[in-house]
Write a structure and sequence with these properties.
Layout lengths: L5 E2 H4 L5 E9 L5 E3 L1 E2 L13 E4 L5 E9 L6 E5 L11 E6 L1 H20 L4 E5 L4 E7 L7 H13 L4 E7 H6 L17 E7 L6 E4 L14 E8 L4 E8 L5
Parallel strand pairs: 1-4
Antiparallel strand pairs: 2-3, 2-8, 3-7, 5-6, 5-8, 6-7, 9-10, 10-15, 11-12, 12-13, 14-15
Helix pairs in contact: 2-3
The site of zinc ion has 6 residues, from helix 2.
Protein backbone atom coordinates (compact mmCIF):
# COMPACT_ATOMS: atom_id res chain seq x y z
CA UNK A 1 0.00 0.00 0.00
CA UNK A 2 2.40 2.66 -1.14
CA UNK A 3 0.70 3.79 -4.30
CA UNK A 4 0.06 7.51 -4.54
CA UNK A 5 -3.55 8.63 -4.39
CA UNK A 6 -4.63 11.14 -7.01
CA UNK A 7 -5.53 14.12 -4.83
CA UNK A 8 -8.56 15.59 -6.59
CA UNK A 9 -9.08 18.21 -3.84
CA UNK A 10 -5.78 19.82 -4.75
CA UNK A 11 -7.01 20.95 -8.16
CA UNK A 12 -10.69 21.41 -7.27
CA UNK A 13 -11.60 22.19 -3.66
CA UNK A 14 -15.31 22.22 -4.57
CA UNK A 15 -15.61 18.53 -5.50
CA UNK A 16 -18.12 17.49 -2.86
CA UNK A 17 -18.53 14.10 -4.54
CA UNK A 18 -16.21 12.02 -6.71
CA UNK A 19 -15.66 8.42 -7.73
CA UNK A 20 -12.76 6.27 -6.60
CA UNK A 21 -11.67 2.64 -6.60
CA UNK A 22 -10.31 0.83 -3.54
CA UNK A 23 -6.66 -0.13 -4.02
CA UNK A 24 -5.81 -1.18 -0.48
CA UNK A 25 -7.14 -1.68 3.05
CA UNK A 26 -4.74 -1.62 6.00
CA UNK A 27 -4.90 -3.71 9.18
CA UNK A 28 -7.00 -1.06 10.95
CA UNK A 29 -9.50 -0.87 8.09
CA UNK A 30 -8.05 2.33 6.61
CA UNK A 31 -8.97 2.50 2.93
CA UNK A 32 -6.69 3.72 0.14
CA UNK A 33 -8.24 4.62 -3.20
CA UNK A 34 -6.79 5.42 -6.60
CA UNK A 35 -8.22 8.94 -6.34
CA UNK A 36 -10.06 10.98 -3.74
CA UNK A 37 -11.75 14.30 -3.01
CA UNK A 38 -11.25 13.71 0.77
CA UNK A 39 -8.61 16.04 2.20
CA UNK A 40 -6.11 14.30 4.50
CA UNK A 41 -5.14 16.05 7.76
CA UNK A 42 -2.12 18.27 7.21
CA UNK A 43 -0.95 21.85 7.43
CA UNK A 44 -3.28 22.55 10.37
CA UNK A 45 -6.42 21.60 8.42
CA UNK A 46 -8.31 18.54 9.68
CA UNK A 47 -9.10 15.72 7.27
CA UNK A 48 -12.55 15.21 5.79
CA UNK A 49 -15.38 13.11 7.12
CA UNK A 50 -18.37 11.83 5.15
CA UNK A 51 -19.40 8.54 3.59
CA UNK A 52 -18.70 6.23 0.67
CA UNK A 53 -21.70 5.05 -1.34
CA UNK A 54 -21.57 1.48 -2.66
CA UNK A 55 -23.19 0.28 -5.88
CA UNK A 56 -26.19 -1.07 -3.93
CA UNK A 57 -26.71 2.33 -2.31
CA UNK A 58 -25.49 1.32 1.14
CA UNK A 59 -23.05 3.56 2.98
CA UNK A 60 -19.63 3.27 4.58
CA UNK A 61 -19.24 6.08 7.13
CA UNK A 62 -15.84 7.81 7.07
CA UNK A 63 -14.74 9.20 10.44
CA UNK A 64 -11.54 10.87 9.28
CA UNK A 65 -8.87 11.10 6.60
CA UNK A 66 -5.11 11.05 7.13
CA UNK A 67 -1.94 10.63 5.11
CA UNK A 68 -0.41 7.17 4.99
CA UNK A 69 3.19 5.99 4.80
CA UNK A 70 3.93 8.76 2.35
CA UNK A 71 2.40 12.22 2.03
CA UNK A 72 0.96 11.13 -1.33
CA UNK A 73 -1.07 8.28 0.12
CA UNK A 74 -4.50 9.21 1.50
CA UNK A 75 -6.04 6.82 4.07
CA UNK A 76 -9.79 6.99 4.76
CA UNK A 77 -10.69 5.85 8.26
CA UNK A 78 -14.02 3.99 8.58
CA UNK A 79 -16.39 4.65 11.49
CA UNK A 80 -16.14 1.81 14.09
CA UNK A 81 -19.09 -0.26 12.84
CA UNK A 82 -18.84 0.61 9.14
CA UNK A 83 -18.89 -2.09 6.45
CA UNK A 84 -15.63 -2.93 4.62
CA UNK A 85 -15.49 -2.61 0.84
CA UNK A 86 -13.68 -5.05 -1.46
CA UNK A 87 -10.36 -4.28 -3.12
CA UNK A 88 -11.20 -3.11 -6.63
CA UNK A 89 -14.65 -1.86 -5.62
CA UNK A 90 -15.66 1.49 -7.08
CA UNK A 91 -17.38 3.89 -4.68
CA UNK A 92 -18.98 7.32 -4.80
CA UNK A 93 -17.15 9.49 -2.28
CA UNK A 94 -19.32 12.02 -0.44
CA UNK A 95 -17.61 14.63 1.72
CA UNK A 96 -19.50 16.13 4.68
CA UNK A 97 -19.66 19.29 2.60
CA UNK A 98 -21.15 21.62 5.24
CA UNK A 99 -18.20 20.85 7.52
CA UNK A 100 -15.56 21.03 4.75
CA UNK A 101 -16.91 24.33 3.43
CA UNK A 102 -16.59 25.86 6.91
CA UNK A 103 -13.01 24.55 7.07
CA UNK A 104 -12.30 26.13 3.66
CA UNK A 105 -13.70 29.48 4.79
CA UNK A 106 -11.71 29.25 8.03
CA UNK A 107 -8.47 28.23 6.32
CA UNK A 108 -8.73 31.20 3.97
CA UNK A 109 -9.49 33.42 7.00
CA UNK A 110 -6.21 32.25 8.56
CA UNK A 111 -4.34 33.37 5.44
CA UNK A 112 -6.12 36.75 5.58
CA UNK A 113 -5.04 37.13 9.20
CA UNK A 114 -1.43 36.46 8.19
CA UNK A 115 -1.76 39.32 5.67
CA UNK A 116 -3.04 41.90 8.18
CA UNK A 117 -0.78 40.59 10.95
CA UNK A 118 2.51 40.08 9.08
CA UNK A 119 4.60 38.35 11.77
CA UNK A 120 6.23 34.90 11.77
CA UNK A 121 3.68 32.14 12.37
CA UNK A 122 4.63 29.59 15.02
CA UNK A 123 1.52 27.41 14.85
CA UNK A 124 -1.97 27.18 13.40
CA UNK A 125 -5.06 25.00 13.62
CA UNK A 126 -8.09 25.30 11.36
CA UNK A 127 -11.42 24.38 12.96
CA UNK A 128 -15.00 24.40 11.75
CA UNK A 129 -16.15 26.84 14.47
CA UNK A 130 -12.92 28.48 15.51
CA UNK A 131 -9.36 28.60 14.21
CA UNK A 132 -6.20 29.71 15.90
CA UNK A 133 -2.97 31.17 14.61
CA UNK A 134 0.08 31.71 16.84
CA UNK A 135 2.47 34.50 15.98
CA UNK A 136 5.93 35.39 17.16
CA UNK A 137 4.82 38.84 18.29
CA UNK A 138 6.41 40.30 21.41
CA UNK A 139 4.42 43.53 21.65
CA UNK A 140 0.65 43.73 21.74
CA UNK A 141 0.23 46.70 19.43
CA UNK A 142 -2.52 44.96 17.46
CA UNK A 143 -6.14 44.88 18.62
CA UNK A 144 -8.94 42.50 17.78
CA UNK A 145 -11.06 45.44 16.59
CA UNK A 146 -8.32 46.70 14.25
CA UNK A 147 -7.46 43.27 12.84
CA UNK A 148 -11.14 42.34 12.41
CA UNK A 149 -11.74 45.53 10.39
CA UNK A 150 -8.68 44.87 8.20
CA UNK A 151 -9.64 41.24 7.59
CA UNK A 152 -13.22 42.22 6.73
CA UNK A 153 -11.92 44.82 4.26
CA UNK A 154 -10.14 41.99 2.43
CA UNK A 155 -13.30 39.85 2.57
CA UNK A 156 -15.58 42.54 1.14
CA UNK A 157 -13.04 43.48 -1.56
CA UNK A 158 -13.75 39.98 -2.93
CA UNK A 159 -10.24 39.13 -4.08
CA UNK A 160 -9.83 36.00 -6.21
CA UNK A 161 -8.01 33.02 -4.70
CA UNK A 162 -6.08 30.57 -6.86
CA UNK A 163 -3.24 28.08 -6.67
CA UNK A 164 -0.01 28.09 -8.55
CA UNK A 165 2.87 25.61 -8.66
CA UNK A 166 6.43 26.87 -8.52
CA UNK A 167 9.82 25.14 -8.48
CA UNK A 168 11.88 24.74 -5.33
CA UNK A 169 14.55 27.04 -6.76
CA UNK A 170 11.95 29.76 -7.23
CA UNK A 171 10.91 29.43 -3.59
CA UNK A 172 14.55 29.53 -2.49
CA UNK A 173 14.90 32.80 -4.43
CA UNK A 174 11.84 34.25 -2.64
CA UNK A 175 12.26 33.30 1.05
CA UNK A 176 9.71 35.96 2.02
CA UNK A 177 6.94 33.67 0.73
CA UNK A 178 7.31 31.38 3.72
CA UNK A 179 5.52 32.73 6.76
CA UNK A 180 5.89 29.81 9.12
CA UNK A 181 8.81 30.11 11.47
CA UNK A 182 9.17 26.43 12.27
CA UNK A 183 7.46 24.69 9.40
CA UNK A 184 9.29 24.52 6.10
CA UNK A 185 7.55 23.41 2.95
CA UNK A 186 8.59 19.88 1.99
CA UNK A 187 11.91 19.81 0.17
CA UNK A 188 12.71 17.27 -2.49
CA UNK A 189 9.34 17.11 -4.21
CA UNK A 190 10.52 19.67 -6.76
CA UNK A 191 7.20 21.50 -6.90
CA UNK A 192 5.65 23.78 -4.32
CA UNK A 193 1.97 24.69 -4.30
CA UNK A 194 1.26 28.34 -3.60
CA UNK A 195 -2.12 29.65 -2.48
CA UNK A 196 -2.45 33.15 -3.95
CA UNK A 197 -4.90 35.90 -3.01
CA UNK A 198 -5.68 38.86 -5.26
CA UNK A 199 -5.17 39.40 -8.98
CA UNK A 200 -1.62 38.27 -9.78
CA UNK A 201 -1.24 37.39 -6.07
CA UNK A 202 -1.24 41.08 -5.17
CA UNK A 203 -2.59 40.44 -1.66
CA UNK A 204 -0.71 37.29 -0.66
CA UNK A 205 0.92 34.08 -1.75
CA UNK A 206 2.29 31.33 0.48
CA UNK A 207 3.06 27.62 0.27
CA UNK A 208 -0.02 25.65 1.37
CA UNK A 209 -1.58 22.32 0.51
CA UNK A 210 -4.99 23.12 1.99
CA UNK A 211 -8.41 23.69 0.47
CA UNK A 212 -9.61 27.27 0.07
CA UNK A 213 -12.66 29.17 -1.14
CA UNK A 214 -12.31 30.73 -4.60
CA UNK A 215 -12.91 34.37 -3.64
CA UNK A 216 -12.54 36.17 -0.33
CA UNK A 217 -16.21 37.15 -0.08
CA UNK A 218 -17.05 33.48 0.52
CA UNK A 219 -15.24 33.65 3.86
CA UNK A 220 -18.21 35.67 5.11
CA UNK A 221 -18.31 37.61 8.33
CA UNK A 222 -15.46 36.73 10.69
CA UNK A 223 -13.80 38.33 13.67
CA UNK A 224 -10.89 37.95 16.05
CA UNK A 225 -12.47 36.54 19.18
CA UNK A 226 -9.50 36.58 21.46
CA UNK A 227 -5.80 37.45 21.60
CA UNK A 228 -3.91 35.48 24.24
CA UNK A 229 -0.35 35.72 25.41
CA UNK A 230 1.43 32.37 25.04
CA UNK A 231 4.88 32.77 26.48
CA UNK A 232 7.05 35.84 26.26
CA UNK A 233 7.08 36.27 22.50
CA UNK A 234 4.01 34.37 21.35
CA UNK A 235 0.48 35.50 20.86
CA UNK A 236 -2.44 33.28 19.96
CA UNK A 237 -5.24 34.72 17.83
CA UNK A 238 -8.64 33.05 17.62
CA UNK A 239 -10.76 33.55 14.50
CA UNK A 240 -14.50 33.01 14.78
CA UNK A 241 -17.45 33.31 12.42
CA UNK A 242 -19.92 36.19 12.80
CA UNK A 243 -19.57 39.82 13.81
CA UNK A 244 -17.30 40.99 16.60
CA UNK A 245 -19.46 40.91 19.76
CA UNK A 246 -20.01 44.42 21.11
ZN1 LIG B 1 -2.79 27.40 4.45
Amino acid sequence: MDAATQALFREDAYLSTAEGTVTGINERGGMVLDRTNFYATSGGQPGDTGFFERADGSRIAIAGTITGQTKDEVVHLPAPDAARPEIGETLVLHIDWARRYKLMRMHTACHLLSVVCPYPITGAAVGEDESRVDFDLPDASVTKEGLTAEMMALVTANHPIFTQWIGEDELAANPGLVKSKNVRPPAGSGRIRLVCIGAEASVDSQPCGGTHVSETQEVGEIHIGKIEKKGRENRRFRIRFGALPT
